């Protein structure tokens, strides 16, 4: 029997519906010369996946398309089933499954091709497929295409509802097309046959607040009862956000009080908006009071609440409070962003709390909040390279990447980042030095670790307990305890041995009396002038 194959492909990262390509497997020339006319009914097409189900129903195909991770293969499965699986016909559910996949992946060209097929097929449709397309056009920054999709819904024999209207208005707000939101709202009944609901009014109020027209938002709020709608806590929270965004905290407090007067319990979002407004104005004490009130009312902070307050504490250089809130956030099972984590670490380093910064770094690595040892640091490095094209990275950014590379043992890459950091005019801090020292010592290159330590004190960067701990442990582990005096001599000569480090070293030496002969005496002779 003749055998044919079919191949689909992605063009430029986008899925494309490719026509079926038949490839006849080779036969000897003699056979080809004497072969009779081809019987096209004897052709078979190779399925895109094996095993291919013998019995196929639309529900099963929709599941296959949804579960398939490879977008191109999902498209081939859909195409093959409709063209080559005997007795199978697509329905609305199968089209919905593949169009969802394509729209989420921003593969809009093949998605539009399938929408055209769906319209031509006269298959009865639901509104959900258009809601997915409108939403993803909005997220992709294509408001005009979102509007075109909404206007074309009736061409499929589907009646628009308030769900697709609200999805469109949200997409327009996301893309700052605020005037268009008001125009569509006014014409929703007469032009589109859709009656707005309270959610539609909330979106309109959000659009007016985003364009700093709080007065217009209040007018809509006042008119809602005459439209048969009762404002809810989301309505008032949106207006509160409008006041806060323009820095009018008195107006925001009035709205907040009205929420309480109506007997509603503000949620975490409402409290967070108020706290963020105070933080933006530098009124940290007021923000803390709001957070205290929030907890007294039994409302749990969310991840955004924590982020707002941690950032505010960092801005005020209150590293201890920032770290405590970050710890609380982790205990509540929230995952902070890498940027927020690094912000706290940076403030700790600025205040000389490098030991705390290092401990926090290790904990965050364990919690998978930072670039880890499984390759994520390279993803971060790629982002860093892109970021560097547009602006000069901060010490914080360099520290994050250098520490991540050292944790991986990628010391060459860490060294390149170090050189680039210095070239850009940034001064490495104790955290940066400690990570490099630790990286070399863990690879057994203690001499390079000592050299970096000597450069550290020469550059007037104060070593701390972590620095000494790393070096002394490494020297003990390789049997070079006699060189501890060299480290102390360097530190003392540069006056970079503080009292905390001195107490740590004495305790360390006493605990390790049995690990070397005479090294304590040598240490004591070195520090006799301290």
UniProtKB/TrEMBL annotation:
<feature type="repeat" description="PPR">
    <location>
        <begin position="394"/>
        <end position="428"/>
    </location>
</feature>
<comment type="similarity">
    <text>Belongs to the PPR family. P subfamily.</text>
</comment>
<feature type="repeat" description="PPR">
    <location>
        <begin position="267"/>
        <end position="301"/>
    </location>
</feature>
<feature type="repeat" description="PPR">
    <location>
        <begin position="232"/>
        <end position="266"/>
    </location>
</feature>
<dbReference type="InterPro" id="IPR051240">
    <property type="entry name" value="Mito_RNA-Proc/Resp"/>
</dbReference>
<feature type="repeat" description="PPR">
    <location>
        <begin position="429"/>
        <end position="463"/>
    </location>
</feature>
<dbReference type="InterPro" id="IPR002885">
    <property type="entry name" value="PPR_rpt"/>
</dbReference>
<keyword id="KW-0677">Repeat</keyword>
<feature type="repeat" description="PPR">
    <location>
        <begin position="197"/>
        <end position="231"/>
    </location>
</feature>
<dbReference type="InterPro" id="IPR011990">
    <property type="entry name" value="TPR-like_helical_dom_sf"/>
</dbReference>
<feature type="repeat" description="PPR">
    <location>
        <begin position="337"/>
        <end position="371"/>
    </location>
</feature>
<feature type="repeat" description="PPR">
    <location>
        <begin position="302"/>
        <end position="336"/>
    </location>
</feature>
<protein>
    <recommendedName>
        <fullName>Pentacotripeptide-repeat region of PRORP domain-containing protein</fullName>
    </recommendedName>
</protein>
<dbReference type="Pfam" id="PF01535">
    <property type="entry name" value="PPR"/>
</dbReference>
<dbReference type="Pfam" id="PF13041">
    <property type="entry name" value="PPR_2"/>
</dbReference>
């Amino acid at each position: 029997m003749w055998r044919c194959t079919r191949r689909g492909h992605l063009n430029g990262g986008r899925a494309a519906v490719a026509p079926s390509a038949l490839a006849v497997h080779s036969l000897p020339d003699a056979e080809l010369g004497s072969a009779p006319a081809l019987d096209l009914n004897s052709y078979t097409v190779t399925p895109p996946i094996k095993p291919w189900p013998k019995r196929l129903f639309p529900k099963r195909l929709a599941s296959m398309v949804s579960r398939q991770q490879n977008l191109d293969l999902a498209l081939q499965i859909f195409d093959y089933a409709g063209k080559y699986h005997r007795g199978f016909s697509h329905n609305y559910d199968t089209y919905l499954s593949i169009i969802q996949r394509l729209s989420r992946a921003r593969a809009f060209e093949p998605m539009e091709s399938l929408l055209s097929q769906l319209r031509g097929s006269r298959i009865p449709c639901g509104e959900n497929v258009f809601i997915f397309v409108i939403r993803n056009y909005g997220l992709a920054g294509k408001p005009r295409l979102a509007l075109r999709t909404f206007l074309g819904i009736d061409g499929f024999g589907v009646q628009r509802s308030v769900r697709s209207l609200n999805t469109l208005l949200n997409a327009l707000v996301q893309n700052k097309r605020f005037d268009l939101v008001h125009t569509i709202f006014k014409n929703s009944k007469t032009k589109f046959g859709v009656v707005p609901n309270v959610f539609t009014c909330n979106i309109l109020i959000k659009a007016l607040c985003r364009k700093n027209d709080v007065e217009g938002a209040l007018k809509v709020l006042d008119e809602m009862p005459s439209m048969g709608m009762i404002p809810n806590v989301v309505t008032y929270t949106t207006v509160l956000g409008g006041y806060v965004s323009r820095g009018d905290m008195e107006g925001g407090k009035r709205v907040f009080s009205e929420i309480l007067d109506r007997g509603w319990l503000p949620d975490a979002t409402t409290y967070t908006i108020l706290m963020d407004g105070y933080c933006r104005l530098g009124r940290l004490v007021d923000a803390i009071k709001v957070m205290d009130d929030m907890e007294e009312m039994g409302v749990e902070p969310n991840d955004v609440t924590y982020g707002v307050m941690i950032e505010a504490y960092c801005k005020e250089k209150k590293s201890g409070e920032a770290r405590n809130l970050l710890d609380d956030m982790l205990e509540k099972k929230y995952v902070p962003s890498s940027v927020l984590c690094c912000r706290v670490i940076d403030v700790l380093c600025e205040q000389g709390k490098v030991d705390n910064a290092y401990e926090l770094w290790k904990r965050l690595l364990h919690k998978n909040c930072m670039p880890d040892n499984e390759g994520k640091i390279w993803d971060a490095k790629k982002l860093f390279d892109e970021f560097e094209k547009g602006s000069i990275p901060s010490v914080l950014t360099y520290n994050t990447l250098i520490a991540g590379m050292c944790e991986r043992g990628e010391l060459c890459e860490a060294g390149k980042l170090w050189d680039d950091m210095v070239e850009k005019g940034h001064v490495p801090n104790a955290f940066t030095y400690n990570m490099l020292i630790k990286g070399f010592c863990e690879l057994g290159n203690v001499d390079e670790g000592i050299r970096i330590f000597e450069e550290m004190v020469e550059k007037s960067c104060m070593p701390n307990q972590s620095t000494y701990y790393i070096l002394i442990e490494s020297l003990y582990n390789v049997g070079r305890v006699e060189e501890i005096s060299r480290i102390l001599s360097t530190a003392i000569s540069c006056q970079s041995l503080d009292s905390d480090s001195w107490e740590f070293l004495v305790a360390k030496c006493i605990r390790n009396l049995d690990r070397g002969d005479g090294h304590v005496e040598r240490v004591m002779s070195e520090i006799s002038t301290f």
